[in-house]
Amino acid sequence: MEIPYTVEPRKDTGLYNAKVGIWLFLASEVMLFGALFSSYILLRVGADVGEWPRDLLNVPIGTVNTLVLICSSVTVVLGWAALKQNNFAKYRMFQTITVLCAFAFVGIKSFEYYDKFTHYQVITKDGKVYDGHLHSRTAEQVVLQGHEIDASKGKAEGVRKAQKADKHGKEIVIKTSDIQKIGNYGPKHNTYMSIYFTLTGLHALHVIAGALVIAYILWPGARMWKTEPERYANRVEVSGLFWHFVDLVWIFLFPVLYLL
Amino acid sequence: MSLKAFHVVFILASLALCFGMSAWAFWQYSDNESSSQTHLLLGTFCLISGICLGIYGRYFLRKLRDVSYL
Amino acid sequence: MKFAASGSQNGENRMQTSSAHAHAPTGDAHGSHPHHDEGGFLKKYVFSTDHKVIGVQYGITALVFLLVGFVLIMCMRWQIAYPGKAIPVLGGLLTSVFGDLASGGVMTPDLYNMFGAMHGTIMVFLAIVPLAFGAFGNLVVPLQIGAPDMAFPRVNMVSYQCYAAGCIVMVVSFFIPGGAAQAGWTSYSPLATAIPGMGQTFWLVGMVLLITSSLLGAVNFIATIIQLRAPGMTWMRLPFFVWAQFVTGFLLLLAFPPLEAAGLMQLADKVLHTSFFLPTGLAMGGELANISGGGSPLLWQHLFWFLGHPEVYVLILPAIGIVGEIVACNTRKPLWGYKSLVYSVLAIGFISFIVWAHHMYLTGMGTKISTFFQTTTMIISIPSVIILTCLFISLWGGSIRFNTPMLFALAFLPMFGIGGLTGLPLGFNYSDIHLHDTYYVIAHFHYVVAPGTIFALLAGVYFWYPKVTGRYMNETLGKIHFWVSLVGMNLVFMPMFYQGMSGMLRRMSDGGAMYSIAQTPNAIGGLSATIIKLNEYVTHAAGLLALAQIPFIINFFWSISNGKKVESDNPWQATTLDWQTPTPPPHGNFETVPTVVRGPYDYSLPGAKADFVPQNQNP
Q1: How far apart are CA A205 and CA C259, in angstroms?
Q2: ipTM of the complex
Q3: Are residues A77 and B4, on separate chains, in Cβ contact within 8 Å?
Q4: Is it true that domain A17-43+57-116+189-259 has CATH number 1.20.120.80?
Q5: Which of A72, A82, A86, C277 fits as disulfide partner to C189, beta carbons 3.0 to 4.6 Å?
Q6: Chain A residues within 8 A (CB-CB) of chain C?
Q7: Which residues of chain A does C592 touch, with a Cβ-Cβ cutoff of 8 Å?
């Protein structure tokens, strides 16, 4: 006996196996990201006053990245539609754009990560707080391009105020002997950065995985188009569904992390 | 739900994001004492993107009229 | 045999048909490998995509871990009864493996914590869930719905491999410096983060692998049940076991990802030094911890129990399904209230997602929230009671065959009943204040899981053994196993209710001796000598329980080649499709696609030739 409904849909459900499978998988993914979003809410509600950063991330860059992902979803669908119309060349063109978009997204995202890893906060022994991008760091001194922070209403609120008043700040030289605590805006900086890196990192992993699957179907797996075209189109559809989900997650992530 | 149906859902969500974000940017521009030109540009950009997406959505629905939603 | 169904043939014919099937191209994964069954030992037994082989792989691995978990708790029981005395038999081995943690064969509190955490983890995630869901689900579900295999055979294989990898990580964690995780199977932060060593990191990595395995399995099961039902197998003709597995699949699918998220966050806390679950001002080792703070320990508990409570139903639902099958078959009458059973299982599935915080009444999350979860907890007991009542009424007026699987299934009913009813005082937040974290809790959930679920799983082993091997397990050894286990289980867990109500707390490596009246005579609420003495009796009873498993182990291996051969493909004369295949079922299961024409439990049908009519036959 062969496994039925691998290609043609079952009559009473109207679906083929892989489509049921991917939707169930996406349901579990919803729960995964849902749990992280809930954690975001709980952490934000529980944060000390003025310690939850706002306007910290670069919104224009994020917007561009969002558009890149929306474009990639459009090309996925157009590629699938082209395949349904038996136009393999057009499909290949659209899906190539999808994969390129995925690379562009990950590239822009890593630039944003790099920006955060070079963004430092220094607390001196006399209680002053400095915040800015690292210019240079030697054994004797640290040079930041940034601001001195008024931390009376919380450090994060102080950073926001200072950046609003003067975007670039000035060069600040701090002696190593004066420093009590120094750290970049990595995951351990505060709970916002932790959840930011966890959410976007997990999402980026999904983007990379999705791009790999699409690329695999597009090039090494394309032989199937000759032998079993319907099954091949199904594969493209299933990978497209996953891709749409990944992009939809970003549509929620972006306003939550960048705007709110 | 087929890729087509999911794409419609996705476009709707993107539309909401575009218009929501352009409203957010204009609000920042008008409300805040330290508003910048960036917000004005961003708001306009998102508004235009939203309109383009809407037009694309109509085109998409027409083009794939014969494909099933299931 | 007169009753033999369409699939039944004599041995030689079976051999021919099964080998003929091995060469037939079989769908998705096998299309490119027409000679699937001839790929040598590795291909046939290790990297097999056949659901029956994967089921057996799951079963054997899980049974081994059931034993490992049992050995861990036996060591702990010795320490509880005789704190500070060297463990007999295993003491020397522990010293050579754990060094200072077990010097002179005596269990240290650290080792006790480690074994406690790993006992829970191994029993829940490595033994019972894989046995109930992975093993029985894989073996039986495709057969019962008349499918040739699972919907995604290769995903099925990967699911087992992820599980095996998770098992290896968990086992290896015992032997790393500092040993395995020590923060309990619940791994509450900040304790779990604060304990030095890599044990917790290994635990988290292992859990991520196990969760991945469960997710792949759940997707596969649900897709299989939705898509691959044989023609005529409508939803209300599904055997009850399939319904139970279907709901279990959804619980695993939707409840596990939040724990995966929580596990990733705790891993970040441990490795990247974030503060997801670490509050501001946390002190570790007497000093203010060098962390940013701002995290929430309650968040971990919420995410953990969001999995943790549905997980309880993951443990019990397949067991109920197995018992349902065995009860129907051995009473020779239909299950009473099939539809009520199905709807109750579905209701449990839904409600189990909104009861999780009844594990957290004492965390200070607020009385209003407690009241909400108390209400939902009381509501979920209604479908549970309906299920138990239906199964009890099913016995009414049946001519019961008291074979070993039926004995285990019958014992399941009152044992699960005791476990369930003693849960009610824990579900009320007022009485929970007194009972929380005592031995009462241990007794309660072990009554559900040990004489409950494990009895049902053992019943399943005895019941489906003839289908897998073609031979019965020995009845005499089986009955010895059953009666001694039944007595042993009750002697172990019944006294714990009393100990718990008297205020003995769990997770104390000296069995509460420190809080005894003997040690501090004037203590208010100190533990009396009787309570402490009970520890010894319980440990002896646990020894009896251990001895009772020896006949089972012997029986299990001896019967593979020496058991009584089955007379037909349908030795229990059951109605469901799993018995209408050749024995053992070949690759692809059925010779022809079965067409289902009736409900799952047409026993003693008036006017029928035999006292059972298989689902794919007219009387």
Answers
A1: 18
A2: 0.95
A3: yes
A4: yes
A5: C277
A6: 1-6, 10, 13, 15-18, 20-21, 24-25, 27-29, 31-36, 39, 42-43, 46-48, 51, 186-191, 194-195, 198, 202
A7: 1
